[in-house]
Amino acid sequence: MKQRHPSLPSGLAALAALYFLLSSPAHATATFNCEAADRNIPKLMFEGHMPYDNNQLLDFRGEIEIEPGRTIELGKQDVKKSYWKKTMAFELKKQTASGTIEIKIRTGKSADDIEFPGTYEVRAGGKIIKGKAACAGG
Question: Is 15's pLDDT higher than 50?
Answer without folding.
Answer: no
